[in-house]
Design a protein that fits this description.
69% of the residues lie in helices and 2% in strands. By secondary structure, it is mostly helical. Helix 1 runs antiparallel to helix 2, helix 6 packs antiparallel against helix 7 and helix 6 packs across helix 12. The protein is globular, with a radius of gyration of 21 Å.
């Protein structure tokens, strides 16, 4: 009865999305953890302070570049959600294992301790709860900087500067390039102080993703051919984009998950970056379970489709950009079928992500996945119910 009532409240448009996400996850998974609400507040506060530290590096570089006494800088940071969830996951584990609260008022700084063979040997069982918190905070700060640097690099390469904000009139390309170069230099200095395996793991994920980006022109050609009804164009979209094969499938995923629509291309597009990020936490000796890792990767793929690709559908279709959403409308017999397929594919990813979050005992992640789903606006798509 309580779960049914929670489900009805979650579907009510009168409640804030964050509250609907909590109720929706409870209705779906039967998990309602009051502590997760306080945990989220703590994680948000601490990661905001970490982001401020990253932006301070950029602001210093911009002030020097533009000969100004001070600069206020801002940048869209929604992509750091997986790092926030991982920090919350470690906090929860550490608190369960500690007599007191290992999460202190201050945030740990400095370079995290790592072990070159941690990926093979597993988590460091000798770490105390407090030591795990320290390493998680240090690795989260590093991960946030790496994720923002990578996103900025993509933005510069794609001539997309709308997410860069400063408090003065300036050439935004120059702003973006200065910001990215400042972070890249600072990040490289940090990596130089760590064992080579850290940079190798980070660079492997970046190279994997960039190899997918290098195929962008090929995917655009597939879309152009399909738009023009060229022979065999739709089978090519289906076989090379929707159900592409892995040369070496990522570890930990089942055959059914690897066979999900668009899994190969979207894993390469975004999922691998967060898979690599989680390996950095493992190198620090932290216990990041396979279930938690799969929850993160599946959630990020689902979010990419449900939030970015749905919102950008009209622009992507006009500009010839192949995404899971534009592909489904090419492959579907009509707009109504295209809409239903996009919703169904998204729900496959997000439902699996919630299932793995529950298995990993990470209600914070489960609520975040529900929040992703309830933040979508599929009604902007052609064929959506009136």
């Amino acid at each position: 009865m309580l779960k049914t009532g929670a489900g009805r409240l979650a579907d009510s448009g009168r409640l804030p999305t964050a509250l609907r996400a909590v109720l929706g996850y409870y209705a779906d998974a039967g998990v309602f953890d009051y502590g997760s609400l306080a945990l989220k507040r703590a994680v948000d506060d601490r990661t905001e302070r970490m982001i401020d530290g990253v932006f301070a590096i950029v602001e210093g570089a911009l002030a020097e570049e533009f000969d100004r006494e001070a600069v206020d800088f801002d940048y869209d940071t929604k992509l750091v959600l997986p790092a926030q969830l991982t920090l919350g996951y470690v906090y929860r584990q550490a608190r369960q294992d500690a007599d007191g609260d290992p999460v202190t008022d201050g945030i740990a700084t400095g370079v995290p301790g790592v072990s070159e063979d941690a990926l093979e040997l597993g988590p460091d069982q000798s770490l105390s709860p407090r030591e795990r918190v320290v390493r998680a905070e240090q690795m989260t700060r590093l991960s946030i900087e790496a994720l923002i640097d990578g996103d900025m690099r993509d933005a510069v390469n794609d001539d997309e500067f709308e997410d860069f904000e400063v408090d003065f009139r300036a050439d935004m390309r120059r702003v973006a390039e200065t910001a990215q170069q400042a972070l890249q230099a600072d990040l490289q200095a940090t990596l130089d102080g760590l064992p080579p395996v850290v940079e190798e793991t980070y660079q492997w994920a970046v190279d994997y993703s960039e190899a997918h980006q290098d195929r962008d022109e090929h995917f655009r050609a597939l879309m152009t051919a399909a738009e023009n009804d060229e022979t065999d164009s739709l089978p090519d979209v289906r076989e090379q984009y929707k159900f592409a094969d892995f040369d070496e499938p990522p570890e930990g995923f089942s055959d059914a998950e690897i066979d999900l629509p668009y899994f190969k291309t979207q894993y390469a597009r975004v999922g691998v970056l967060y898979d690599g990020m989680l390996d950095l936490y493992r190198l620090a000796g932290l216990d990041v379970s396979d279930d938690f890792a799969k929850a993160i990767v599946l959630a990020i793929i689902g979010a990419q489709i449900w939030l970015d690709d749905v919102d950008d559908y009209a622009d992507d279709r006009r500009e010839g950009q192949l995404t899971p959403v534009t592909a489904e409308y090419l492959l579907a017999p009509d707009d109504e079928a295209g809409y239903r397929r996009v919703v169904d594919i998204t729900e496959q990813y997000l439902d699996l992500a919630k299932e793995y979050a529950t298995r990993a005992d990470s209600p914070l992640t489960g609520v975040a996945v529900e929040y992703i789903y309830r933040s979508g606006e599929p009604e902007v798509l052609p064929g959506a119910p009136k």
